[in-house]
Write a structure and sequence with these properties.
Length: 170
């Protein structure tokens, strides 16, 4: 998809990955860095598009949590052992540490998805949410893209063949 749709694919895949679809975000960002080092993508544009895709997914998740989260948790929370008492305790914890959980939890797969919804459920102020989510997302995008850029730029794939990959996997 990246070779055919480029920046649009990056944006869409990251937005969908943050919402919760099974997209390997870290691997995707590292590959975006590699594509930038090989000249297929421009690094500043790739980072900007990655950040915008990530923030779009995070804002959509926040909106879903804000609009539908609490009623759904009250109705179906008992199925996952989330009693009203536990929900109140989680909201109390999130109101105290949630902004930092959003910022640093971004580096833990699964946690980054849940914190977006929880921010909406707990009615975190949008401005505060965007500040902390944006800081974490920007750092995450730059970090993984840079890893792919620097590591990918130092690897010579010119003599690499698909048959070599198959022999490694078998």
């Amino acid at each position: 998809m990246l070779s055919q749709y480029g920046y649009i694919a990056i944006f869409v895949l990251l937005a969908l990955g943050i919402i919760g679809l099974p997209v390997p975000d870290e691997l995707l960002m590292t590959f975006v860095g590699y594509l930038s080092s090989s000249g297929f993508l421009l690094l500043p544009i790739a980072i900007a598009v990655s950040f915008l895709g990530t923030m779009s997914g995070m804002l959509f998740s926040y909106a879903l949590g804000r609009k539908f989260g609490k009623p759904l948790l009250h109705k179906y929370g008992k199925w996952i052992k989330l009693t009203p008492k536990r929900l109140d305790k989680a909201e109390s914890w999130f109101s105290r540490y949630g902004a930092w959980a959003i910022c640093f939890g971004y580096f833990i797969p699964g946690i980054r998805h849940v914190t977006c919804y929880l921010a909406g459920v707990s009615a975190m102020r949008l401005r505060r949410y965007v500040l902390f989510a944006g800081a974490g997302a920007l750092f995450w995008c730059v970090l993984f893209t840079s890893i792919g850029y620097h590591v990918g730029g130092s690897i010579d794939f010119s003599n690499f063949h698909l048959s070599q990959l198959r022999s490694l996997l078998v």
